Amino acid sequence: MVDAIVSPLVEQLISFVAKEIKQQVKLVIGVEKEVKGITSHLRAIRAVLDDAEEKQVKDEAVRLWLGRLKYASYDIEDVLDEWITARHKLQIEGGADDNALVAPHKKKKVCFCFPASCFGFRKEEFGLKQVFPRHDIAVKVKEINEALHDIAAQKDMFDLVKSGNKSSERPRRVQSTSLIDEEEICGRVGERNELLSKLLCESSEQQKGLHIISIVGMGGIGKTTLAQLACNHVEVKRKFDKLLWVCVSDPFEQFRVAKAIAEALGIPSSNLGEFQSLLKLISESITGKRFLLVLDDVWDGDCIKWEPFYLCLKNGLHGSKILVTTRKKSVASMMGSTDTDIITVMELTEEECWSLFKRLAFFGPSINDCEKLEQIGRRIAGKFKGLPLAAKTIGSLMRSKQIEEEWERISNSDLWRVEEMEKGVLSSLLLSYNDLPSKVKICFSYCAVFPKNYNIKKDELLTLWMAQGYLSAKQNKEMETIGEEYFSILASRSFFQEFEKSYDNRIIECKMHDIVHDFARFVSQNECFSMEINGSEEPNTINSLDEKVRHLMLIIGREASFRVPICRVKRIRSLLIDNSRTSCSYFNGEILEELFRESTSLRALDFWGSYDVSPFWTLKIPRNIEKLVHLRYLNLSCQNIRKLPETLCELYNLEKLYITRCLYLEELPEGIGKLINMKHLLNYRTDSLRYMPVGIGRLTGLRTLDEFHVIGGGGVDGRKACWFESLKNLKHLQVCGIRRLGDVSDVGEAKRLELDKKKYLSCLRLSFDEKEQGGERRKNEDDQLLLEALQPPPDLKELEIRFYRGNTVFPNWLMSLTNLRSLVLYGCENCEQLPPLGKLQSLEKLSLTIMRSVKRVGDECLGIEIIDAFPKLKSLTISSMLELEEWDYGITRTGNTVINIMPRLSSLTIARCPKLKALPDHIHQTTTLKELRIWACELLGKHYRGGTEKTGLKYHTFPTS
């Protein structure tokens, strides 16, 4: 994991020598030599990091050494970041060349401050409060080199082996067999029956090739146990002529696996020669026989490596199967299992966990004679969170403990500190962890910053990874894409669970199993910390908030008044405040000013407020926010902020600024154009913004601009404001919203915007609201012309149109959006008839809200001469359609062909449609609908209560008030 920090640092330092030292401080004697010394030390350390990572689990001294190295690396990173930032600042503000940055005889003397706190030195020792010329870097570089020299020398104390010289032999899990005592198994009835049905299914007999079934789940969840249960079932034994069990494990060795298969077939060991001859013997032995081959604990799904096995196994009788157990869903897919042939093993219920624990922990006297121990035992079992391996490990431990005090000690302790858990569960999780690339390891350990059972938002997590520099763009891949890949790696290995998905099956949120969370805390060496503040008293955990913490999350309760002394953690790099439970901010200007002054290493600062934030409480952002020069991610959402300080524009590294639902924010800083690294400006529902500053047009790297506010008069100085057509410069936009289109008087402005040429644009939100109220409303025809001029690119995925006043929402370009997945029409009150939306073949989500002129939804919505209407639609919402009386399609055939309407619809919501009497026939006939919500629909609600016999659908009806 430390390698993920050190390796990029080595490359940065090499670049530092080449581009900075040689050009800018070449007259300072010895600087280049010192920096090369730092690079050399880091390279020597990097060579033994793999061995150190493995040894730290058992060796406290190695773990402490790695900690010192990591903290030193952080400080080097800060120094480099500040140097480079200072250079960028001068280039932006003064247009100076590199030589002008340090030459003391030039007109502008450039000073730059490097933290003397690097590598454990106190600021006071070096007069850090002073600012000194950058050519004095020689002194600092020398101190850094000496500190790293000591760390590099210490590595020799631990007999660390270089990566190239280390034996390739890796620890494997204990070899499994097909043998099992079924009486010792708890639960798994549903999974066992599902697996048996797949193994015994006759329909698969006609399938070409081998039928491959996979069992997927986290380490210790019971995959092998489930496979053993199936193999020992009488029907399975009767069906298959040969039952073969091979424990594959990691690393995957073709010859070893082939030899194990041959031995399971009873081939004499004297005949087990070369790999090719083994495959031939296997092929001959299974010819004409129906076999079941279990490949337990597969880590490597490389098709090329497995292909020789598939070729030799194809001579088995039709109906032969392969059963794979793996921690990685990606391996299951690579091995040839389809989604329907993958069984995901979930946690046991709490009662099943207790039952398993009880069988192992209690012996001799009856459980009835151990009532006190049972009460304690149930508390212990609750800590396992459904993980069978944990229940078996601690259950076996408690068998030797019959004293109540011993049980209480285990109950009150952190299970991770129990030695038996380290040997059992820890070793199991380490197998998965060690299999991760180093850069993914550090991403995983960062997740310990969230509390247990926390709903982790995927996009937020990826943003935090980016802010810490864990995602390095490479070749044509952007950081967001790499983050998605890292997340998928962790999800496929069961480090994440309980996924919440969007309408298009994208993961939105997830959780971590409690024991996996404990493991993340373990490998992060307590760098990550979370704390819940519920009252006015100091939490007991506050003592754990020491200088080692680099990433901190605070959950603020409704009654919280105690202020956590955040500023004492001066080197903190992430500060996340969940303030959503209270209407008052946890911060005030005084606290923020101290935070900005002391915690200058922050990369991510998030203090999302409450949706019901009080309008009478204003948060003022201090001017000294400019000190956070490393900041990449800033979230001020749902705060009552009236103005952002101009000094915010000194944060040249800022990549993502969240000001969502800052309802009272009146203006953005004029110098926002200096934020050259800004990629995402998320300002949704900044309703009070009067204009966008002119600098917005210079942020050519922007990917997200949630709301661009068109100038609407009101005394705005045109020299300060960014005009509508300035959006033309933002060629990389992926998400764009435009508000106050009602104030656009010239359709030519919209045409000059050339939205259709923004090839990366995937989401577009158009709102025809107006800034000025009470004036003469423009004509409906103006909206129609304007909407026609705002033609998006043909690959657009999401479209939202709000407060459009035209009589139709059918611009000529709408039906050309063949890849459109989501469409929202909101407040289009003059629209009397829906366009033929059924012709949008990719549409998955449709929302129609406040369209008060629509009285009927009928054939016009399907389209002419269409066979499949809304073929991919999954989610449909019809809301506040106060005049809607009828929803029915008179035409259900095209010639002799029946029109297939919404064949994939799974969620339907009807709200505030008081005149709607009934749902169309295709809704009654659907077999895919899982959820129907009817709210405040008096006539409709009477007909749909409880469900129907035909579909078994559960209807949810809600009263008007």
* Residues in helix, %: 25-40%
Structure summary, number of beta strands? 33
Largest sheet, strands/sense/barrel: 17 strands, parallel
Structural class: alpha/beta
Can you count the helices? 26
Taken as a percent bin, the fraction of beta residues is 5-15%
Q: Report the C-alpha radius of gyration, rounded.
A: 32 Å
Q: What would you call the shape? A: globular
Uncertain regions: pLDDT < 50 for 5+ in a row?
A: 95-133, 947-954
What is the rounded distance between the termini? 55 Å
**pLDDT averaged residue by residue:** 81
Structure description:
This protein is α/β, with parallel strands linked by helices and 961 residues long. Among the domains are: 3-161; 187-344, Rossmann fold, CATH 3.40.50.300; 350-426; 832-961. It is 32% helix and 14% strand. It is built from 26 helices and 33 strands. Residues 95-133 and 947-954 have low confidence and may be disordered.
Structure in a nutshell:
Among the domains are: 3-161; 187-344, Rossmann fold (3-Layer(aba) Sandwich), CATH 3.40.50; 350-426; 832-961.
Give the SSE layout.
Blueprint (H helix, E strand, L loop, with lengths): L2 H22 L6 H16 L2 H7 L4 H34 L17 E2 L19 E2 L3 H18 L34 H12 L10 E6 L6 H9 L2 H6 L2 E6 L6 H11 L10 H12 L4 E8 L4 H11 L7 E6 L2 H7 L6 E3 L5 H12 L9 H12 L5 H11 L5 H9 L6 H16 L3 H9 L9 E2 H10 L11 H14 L4 E5 L5 E5 L2 H10 L4 E6 L17 E6 L17 E5 L10 H10 L5 E5 L24 E3 L20 E3 L21 E3 L21 E6 L25 E5 L7 H7 L9 E5 L12 H10 L8 E5 L19 E5 L18 E5 L6 E2 L10 E2 L5 E5 L6 E2 L5 E2 L2 E2 L1 E2 L5 E5 L9 H5 L5 E5 L2 H4 L13 E4 L3
Parallel strand pairs: 3-6, 3-7, 4-5, 5-6, 11-12, 12-13, 13-14, 14-15, 15-16, 16-17, 17-18, 18-19, 19-20, 20-21, 21-22, 22-23, 23-26, 24-27, 25-30, 26-31, 31-32, 32-33
Antiparallel strand pairs: 1-2, 8-10, 9-10, 28-29
Helix pairs in contact: 1-2, 1-4, 2-5, 4-5, 6-7, 9-10, 10-11, 13-14, 13-15, 14-16, 15-17, 18-20, 19-20, 23-24
GO molecular function: ADP binding; ATP binding
Keywords: ATP-binding, Leucine-rich repeat, Nucleotide-binding, Plant defense, Repeat
